[in-house]
Amino acid sequence: MRADMTWQERAPQIVIYLLLALALIFVYLVFMAGQFKGLTDVNAMDYAQIGRNIAQGEGFTTNFIKPLSLTRQLSLERHPDLTYPPIHPWLISVVMHTVGMNDRAVALASGIPFLLTIPLILIFALWLFDSRVAWLAVALYVTNIAMLGYSISGLEVHLLALLVTGLLMVLYQYAQHREYRPLLAAAAGLLLALIYLTKYLWAIILIPILVYLYYVSERRQRAQAMIVLVVVFLVIIAPWCYRMYNVSGNPFFTWRWYETIMTTRTNPGMTLYRSFPEKLTPLPTYALQHPVEIYEKFRTGVATLYGVLPKVGGAYVTAFFVVAILVPLGTRNFERLRYLLYGMFVLVFLALIVVMADPRLLYPLAPIVTLIAAAFFYRVFLPIVQNLGLREQRRYTTLAVSVLLLSQIIPMLFSLTTRPGPGETTTREQFVTWTREAKELGGEPIICDVPWLSAWHNDMVSIWIPKSPQDLKRIQEKVGQIPWMLLTPAIARNETAERTRQWAQMWREAIVRDILPRYGFVVQERIGDGSWVLFRKIPTAPFEISPPESAPPVNSSESES
After folding, report:
1. Rounded Cα distance, 30 and 413, in Å
2. What is the pLDDT at residue 87?
3. How many CB atoms lie within 10 A of CB 515?
4. How far is CA 200 from CA 6, 288, 321, in A?
5. Cβ count near 555 (within 10 Å)
6. Would you state the pLDDT for residue 410?
7. Among residues 405, 406, 454, 411, which one has the least CA distance to residue 433?
8. What is d(CA 179, CA 174) in angstroms, rounded to the nearest whole number?
9. Distances from the Cα of 182 to the Cαs of 217, 230, 268, 334, 490, in angstroms?
């Protein structure tokens, strides 16, 4: 809207914007009503139970305890979380105070940033291009099936997308307005700090941001801008660094860094999280001692993430973004911002390969990818129809935009019309019910192969099943006897990937008969369909009991969940 417009001229546009905002919220609510069946992601349930602890006044603590974490903190009650940064769990706790401590509150903690990102895309596109590009970018983003899925996931993807989009907008304005550069550099430092406190790994974008400030600023402003950004960044993260120093001895500590040496031959899957080593090998030392394993991890990471790029903006939309890399689209300041974007993408891509190749952490770039794709679409199409009459131009432009939108909308429509098949009998609701039965029949703390379920749905102190019985023995020597254990069919499904052979053998025997004390545990109850087994610890039973060479055969239907 122009600044010189009267209220009477502004009113119709305001009404239109409000109606469009309501329409976007309606699309989100329809998608949530049709697709949301509760939290399914392990990380989302982990975030959820930490958020609930914050909401209940227990601080940044976790009920999902990794054996590895016990090497730093032996307490089981109010165990400080040493894995996640604070912003997303804090946002979950705020939403919980409003709508209750349930799955839907966690999903809304992803949905609210999703909805808030949409006006940023609109405003940013209007700054850079025109209203046609702005509305097309919004439409493509809102109908992106991947981003819609993350909007009800309970994960941090959309919070990161909101912050990254805001950061790029601030940096663009930094290039545009010389008189406000110190203030804008400080704002960029603030947003970068919030990004770090949402996902540690994303702090790597500090490198291309400093390069960007160097080239955009005049010679006398370069040092000032970079210093202001770094100082504000450090000041904002300082309280959290102080907390981490108190609980771990390292202000920048997180167990996430140890994922660098996970999913390797020495530490397959998540087995390092489930181990209780007497001493941890420093990460650089491990890399020097196992260079082939590190190379294999990198190669697998590239293969995992390489196919993500075409999906970030949508199956047929991202192609416009990729081709646009070679084509100037806007002013000099915008082109510099694009180079920053490419640098951010490459560094985050490389960091994910080094740590853990998680595709979702590339999706925070989806808003700007979609915006550039929409701009390039018009850049390609408009010259084709420019020699036609006005009516024909409008007709063919509408047709082309409709085809592009249809390619984006079809996956969303298919997802809304998909229903569970008749054979899908073991539902999430059953799992929730069975974890509650385990709590009623037993207690806590409990050792479990699905601790994210019991920690979130039952608010139980749940220790991830140790890597081996020897790890369990060392844990109990340090923290005391753990009275309960719950094993599910997942222990057998992960037997190879997570090296759970001894526990899987124990479970196979227990689902068909009571067993002699194994590692001090006996069968207390078989839960649900009989495939979930609750064990009770007998304090006087000897720990070292050699399992039999072979387990009795188990009917295949009994071993499935």
Report:
1. 11
2. 97
3. 18
4. 47, 24, 27
5. 9
6. 87
7. 454
8. 9
9. 11, 12, 48, 20, 54
d(CA 280, CA 296): 21
Taking residue 135's Cβ as centre, other Cβ atoms within 10 Å add up to: 17
Nearest CA-CA partner of 460 in 437, 439, 487? 439
Using CA atoms, how far residue 336 sits from 92, 171, 186, 233, 348, in Å, is 36, 10, 20, 22, 19
Rounded CA-CA distance 78/246 in Å is: 15
pLDDT digits (tens, 9 = 90+) for 342-390: 999 999 999 999 999 999 999 999 999 999 999 999 998 888 888 888 8
SS3 520: coil
pLDDT by residue (tens digit) across 286-295?
Answer: 989 999 999 9
CA distances from 454 to 68, 152, 313, 521 (A): 19, 21, 36, 19
**What distance in Å separates the CA atoms of residue 456 and residue 62, rounded to the nearest whole number?**
10
What is the C-alpha separation between 123 and 134, in angstroms, rounded?
Answer: 8
Cβ neighbours of residue 267 closer than 8 Å, sequence gap 6 or more: 261
Helix, strand, coil percentages in the chain from 3-state DSSP, rounded to 5 = 65, 5, 30
Q: What percent of the chain has pLDDT over 70?
A: 93
Q: What order of strands is seen across the sheet that includes strand 446-448? A: 64-65, 462-464, 446-448, 484-487, 532-537, 521-527
The sign of the dihedral angle between the CA atoms of 425, 428, 434, 440 is negative
Q: Would the pTM of this model clear 0.85, i.e. be above it?
A: yes
Q: Which residues of the chain have pLDDT under 50?
A: 423, 425, 548-561
CA distance 331 to 129: 10
8 A C-beta contact, residue 463 and residue 471: no
Residue 278 confidence (pLDDT): 84
Task: Judge if the upstream peptide bond of residue 445 is cis by omega within 30 degrees of 0.
Answer: yes
Q: Which helix (H) or strand (E) holds 464?
A: strand 462-464
Helices (H), 511-547: none
